[in-house]
Write a structure and sequence with these properties.
The protein has 392 residues and is of the alpha+beta class. It is 36% helix and 27% strand. Helix 5 packs across helix 7 (201-225). The radius of gyration is 26 Å and the shape is elongated.
Length: 392
């Protein structure tokens, strides 16, 4: 255990009195007395009694020093490092999901550049998939590229933690409203433990993320021993499994497909009604091809409805006159990477597509996106338009 002492005044000053109070109360410390200088908390551990002074005004000139003393006592009482205690105080009102990857070709705390970028993108996709599953009234095996405003607002609240050693660890931190009835003072002894009737959206997303990842892990294990492997994935769609979530999990393994582990730590300030067993979820190398196949089959079976495609016509084909088929190289709404999408068009739209191809103009079209083998197809295309030049 690293016995580092934290002396950075800016770091110490950043911890608010409410964070300190919520942590102490959650750890079963009791208030003995209070005065103008602060609040004295005590706790008996074995035959020892510990006492800390918690400042209640962060504007005090010696506030960082008082937090420094409090942190030292907590580390001694809990037999933990000050770094770990401070991290828990910082996250006292946050649910934290950590992804520990195990890249075989790098030392602790390192990951390949491409794999690292992909891991962060996949982590965001994982959070988006869980948030959409909570926001949507109907579970969907393939989630639409266009996300509801509620999901986009939620993403702006979520933060990414700094990587830590121990293989390569990424973390997402979700602010969770404290569970307080009537919002009494955090420093009162008679704070009510009455629980709110429903969990807030942020906590429901946290739990959905964990449950959906657990369901994907169970489904991958079943698929490895069953001839009807996809059924385990489709049956678990109500738990949050989707093609989007499976693809995000595959991305966390990087190009090399290295194993990884997900853990969840709930905000101390908002405990669950019932104690939840949140064991780490471990994905092996052989899980990742199964997840990739499940995502592809789900996309082939279920269309992504109402997708907007923006791009350039790169291929035209029809027999004689009438309807024909084109392919567009462009982007799908909600994504950045370039895709090639095939689609059928009626006579009028095909004529417009031909003109756009000749004049090198972009086009837009909306429809239902499906995957057939290695190709993407847009079915039921509508609202086909040639994008006008700026001069026009």
């Amino acid at each position: 255990m690293i016995q580092a002492r934290i002396t950075d005044r800016a770091v110490l000053a950043a911890r608010s009195p409410s964070e300190l109070a919520m942590y102490l109360r959650a750890k079963a410390w009791a208030i003995r007395e209070r005065d103008r200088g602060g609040i004295i908390w005590v706790k008996v551990i074995g035959s020892d009694e510990f006492e800390v002074l918690q400042p209640h005004d962060s504007a005090l000139r010696d506030y960082p020093s008082r937090v420094r003393d409090l942190l030292s006592v907590l580390a001694s009482a809990e037999d933990r490092s000050e770094l770990d205690v401070l991290a828990d105080i910082t996250d006292v009102s946050m649910d934290v999901h950590s992804i520990r990857t195990f890249p075989a070709d790098h030392g602790p705390g390192l990951i390949g550049l491409d794999d690292g970028v992909q891991a962060y993108e996949s982590l965001r996709s994982l959070v988006v998939a869980a948030a959409y599953a909570v926001s949507s009234e109907q579970p969907r095996a393939v989630q639409p590229a266009r996300k509801p405003a509620e999901v986009l607002r939620f993403l702006r609240e979520v933060a990414i933690g700094a990587p830590v050693e121990g293989s390569f660890v990424l973390s997402v931190h979700t602010p969770i409203p404290p569970r307080l009835s009537g919002q009494p003072s955090l420093f009162d002894d008679d704070v009510s433990d009455a629980l709110e009737p429903a969990e807030p959206f942020e906590r429901r997303v946290s739990l959905k993320l964990y449950d959906a990842v657990r369901a994907a892990n169970d489904a991958a294990n079943d698929a490895l021993i069953s001839s009807n492997g996809l059924d385990a994935f489709t049956d678990a769609v109500p738990r949050g499994i989707s093609a989007n979530l499976c693809e995000a999990l595959v991305g966390l393994g990087g190009e090399a497909g290295h194993p990884f582990e997900l853990t969840m730590r709930l905000a101390i300030a908002r405990p669950l009604r019932a104690r939840a067993l949140l064991e780490p979820i471990r994905f092996r190398r052989d899980h990742l091809p199964v997840l990739a196949s499940a995502a592809q089959e789900l996309r082939e079976r279920v269309a992504d409805e109402g997708v907007l495609i923006v791009g350039n016509v790169v291929r035209l084909h029809r027999e004689g006159v009438g309807s024909g088929e084109i392919s567009v190289a462009g982007t799908i709404e909600g994504e950045d990477r370039l895709r090639r999408v095939w689609m059928p068009l009626g006579d009028g739209d095909y004529t417009q597509a031909t003109r756009a191809h000749q004049e090198m103009r972009s086009v837009t079209v909306r429809g239902d996106l499906v995957r057939r083998g290695t190709r993407l197809y847009l079915t039921n295309p509508s609202a086909f338009q040639v994008v006008a030049d700026r001069d026009e």
